[in-house]
Amino acid sequence: MEKQKTTVRVAGREYTLVSSEAPEYMNRVASFVDRRISETALAARLPVDKAAVLTSLNIADELMKSHDENSRLRRELMNVRRELEEARKGK
């Protein structure tokens, strides 16, 4: 897919993003980040710039945990497949 420019608004500022993803997807990502920054700023009573950094750390933490879980599940799936193959051979 060809790269496209999409203008989004996050934390009250506009950003022009260049991506091969659809503009609808990029707007969805920006809305998610904007919402999370707003929630963090309100809950912690932080200025937007500090809330943005804290939000980035929280999202990175969630991403890394998801990657770890994904890796664990892939290993588990490989083990189950291996056991299934061994069971089929043993028949």
Radius of gyration: 20 Å
State the helicity in percent bands.
over 70%
Strand content is 15-25%
Class based on secondary structure composition and strand pairing: alpha+beta
Q: How many distinct folded domains?
A: 1
Summarize the biggest pleated sheet: 2 strands, antiparallel
Overall geometry comes to: elongated
- Tally the beta strands: 2
* Strand line-up across the major sheet: 1-2
What's the short version?
The protein is α+β, with helices and mostly antiparallel strands and 91 residues long. 70% of the residues lie in helices and 15% in strands.
Keywords, please?
single chain; alpha+beta; 15% strand; 91 residues
Describe the structure.
- With 91 residues, this protein is α+β, with helices and mostly antiparallel strands.
- The protein has one domain (4-89).
- The protein is built from two helices and two strands; from the N terminus they run E-E-H-H.
- It has a two-stranded antiparallel ribbon.
- Strand 1 and strand 2 (13-19) form a beta hairpin.
- The longest helix has 42 residues, at 48-89.
Ordered list of secondary-structure elements with their pairings:
Layout: E1 4-10, E2 13-19, H1 23-44, H2 48-89
Antiparallel strand pairs: 1-2
Helix pairs in contact: 1-2
